[in-house]
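Record 1 of the preview.
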Amino acid sequence: MRPKAKVNVNYLVDEVMRFFVKEDGFFVSDNFQEVHSPADLFWQVGVSTNSSVFQLFANLAGRANFGGGLMKIQTYEVAALLTVNPTLLDSVSCKKALLNADRLDLQAADRRALDEVVFDVLGLTPGEREAVYEAVVALVRARLDKAQSV
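->
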């Protein structure tokens, strides 16, 4: 029997590409992709991939070729995206950030709390942190606006 993935992601994205984390793992098919990581790093992988920095990379790599502005990103493209090295992240703060997160919307307070963990490891200044948010929001808005104009 194949192992359950503790982190899974949808490959069709509306506003936010969400990586779902479950401690005992779960099986997915069709519209989701499994993310396999070392067993002791899944919380860190979940925070790294749900961060706004990762959202920026995903929005640069994904394709918006579906109606309504949906972005598609294939498994091989997700595997090639850059992430924060999960070994640099603290598992306790990552678990807390993910368990406290609600929907991780682009402008939500729970996203900012999760991002602080990643931004701190990267050593981003307050201005750089705001620039990440502005870039992600601009890319998503441009993709969705383009879909509305067609």
